[in-house]
Design goal:
By secondary structure, the protein is α/β, with parallel strands linked by helices. It has 19 helices and nine strands. It has a nine-stranded parallel sheet with strand order 1-2-3-4-5-6-7-8-9.
Length: 458
């Protein structure tokens, strides 16, 4: 056997890189970097990027944002998940792009213009509305609302809740008696169902300016029952106390909620002398003369500019009460009494009020069983009143003579720009001539609006 020669390092020291022939199955050899044809230095992230991604991934446990540079903040916000708890993001994240992602990922239709062009406001208003629409008294945890208040109170300006679910309850006596549909429809076996009390929420939302409510259930289908649409006396008491404490509220709408005279009077008592209320909408309810008389008191004990009582059951006594208030009022600019029963006694009373009123700009008396006597009085209004720019008499029975009277009164009127006489039986020729005068007034008003304002010389 040949002995190794002294000093022969090639035979004395094992090779650092074994040859391919010496590799056995199962042995491991790490390839050098230069052996990966796809490897590039550009694929290695910068340490800054790795840190920012780590911050975004762990934002819930460690929400670092304010201490970052502005450009780094933007990168973190772009990577944040929209499913992070609101307790983390509500008062820390103000970036509109982040809240835009939150909105568009949750809702298909997002009209940010309806929310003051603020995506954050849109998110919190709609999120709160969805919770209220699905809240079931005695079943849903109240903390769902209470815990959200400190997170959203600075951003909510308007609430539109078109559904209030009643509590889940089973009246065993009713089931045994098996009442007929007729009895249920008439409310003979009505079960008292109170809805979510908005009091604590509304008073805590210090920036709330608009409240739009409908007490009912949407998409109930075959489960329809009249008690699902019952705005109870207790509901009204709770709501009245809430709106009284909502000092910044400018718009209050309570529609399609079976609000009757007693509930109207209760609401009005709590709205008297309200510091900010400028619009009240109680349309599509059950308000009769007593309720209208209460609203008449409110007109002159508030700053109301818009009043909508469309589709109620107001007759001439209620209209006369509103007319008395209108004769003394100096703030109301729009009154909607469409689809009521004011008839000529009520229509004439309103016309007399408009002979002296100098603030009302728009009045809607469509579908009120009006006829020629009301048209005759309004012909005088068209001569004397220089404030009204819109009148709607549609779907009444003014007749040919009534139309001629209105045409005569409109002859020298230069301010009326809208006059709806559809289905009033005034005759096509009269309606055409009135339309021509109104069109000329509208065109003149448009030209005046294009002229630059004149300044008085010093």
């Amino acid at each position: 056997m040949q002995q190794p020669v002294a000093g022969d390092r090639s035979t004395a020291i094992p090779s650092l890189y074994p040859s391919q022939a010496s590799l056995t199955p199962g042995s491991h050899c790490t390839p050098r970097i230069s052996e990966d044809p796809e490897w590039s230095l550009a694929t290695v992230p910068h340490l800054t990027e790795l840190c920012l991604q780590h911050i975004a991934d762990n934002f819930e446990k460690n929400p670092i944002l304010d201490c970052l540079l502005p450009e780094h903040q933007k990168k973190v916000l772009d990577r944040l998940s929209t499913s992070l708890p609101l307790a983390v993001t509500a008062n820390l994240v103000s970036d509109e792009d982040y809240w835009k992602r939150c909105c568009t990922e949750r809702w298909q239709v997002c009209d940010v213009a309806s929310y003051g062009d603020s995506w954050k406001r849109m998110f919190f208003e709609r999120h709160l509305e969805n919770i209220l629409k699905r809240f079931i008294p005695n079943t849903t945890d109240p903390n769902q609302v209470l815990e959200l208040i400190p997170l959203c109170k600075d951003y909510v300006r308007k609430l539109e809740v078109d559904q209030f679910l009643p509590p889940v309850q089973v009246d065993q006596k009713e089931e045994r008696d098996d009442p007929s549909d007729t009895e249920s429809d008439l409310g003979f076996n009505e079960v008292s169902v109170h809805h979510y009390d908005l009091g604590g929420l509304v008073t805590a939302l210090s920036h709330l300016e608009e409240l739009h409510l409908t007490y009912g259930v949407k998409d109930c289908g075959m489960n329809f029952e009249w008690k699902l649409f019952n705005f109870t006396h207790q509901d009204c008491c709770n709501l009245a106390a809430a709106v009284k404490m909502c000092h910044n509220m400018k718009v209050f709408k309570l529609t399609q909620s079976k609000v009757d005279d007693d509930k109207t009077k209760l609401l009005v008592r709590n709205l008297l002398d309200h510091p900010c209320l400028v619009e009240l909408n109680l349309s599509h309810n059950l308000i009769r003369d007593k309720g209208a008389q209460a609203v008449g008191k409110l007109i002159n004990r508030s700053r109301l500019e818009t009043l909508d009582l469309c589709n109620n059951q107001i007759h001439h006594l209620g209209a006369q009460a509103l007319a008395r208030a209108l004769a003394e009022n100096s703030t109301l600019t729009s009154l909607n009494l469409r689809l009521n029963y004011v008839e000529d006694k009520g229509g004439q009373a309103i016309g007399c009020a408009l002979l002296t009123n100098t603030t009302l700009k728009s009045i809607h008396l469509g579908s009120n069983n009006l006829s020629e006597p009301t048209a005759i009085l309004f012909s005088q209004v068209l001569v004397q009143n220089t404030t009204l720019i819109s009148i709607n008499f549609s779907c009444n029975h003014l007749g040919l003579d009534g139309g001629k009277q209105l045409l005569e009164g409109l002859a020298d009127n230069k301010v009326l720009t809208e006059f709806d006489l559809r289905m009033t039986e005034v005759g096509q020729e009269t309606e055409y001539l009135i339309h021509q005068i109104v069109w000329a007034n509208r065109e003149a008003a448009r030209l005046r609006s294009l002229q630059p304002p004149t300044t008085k010389p010093l």
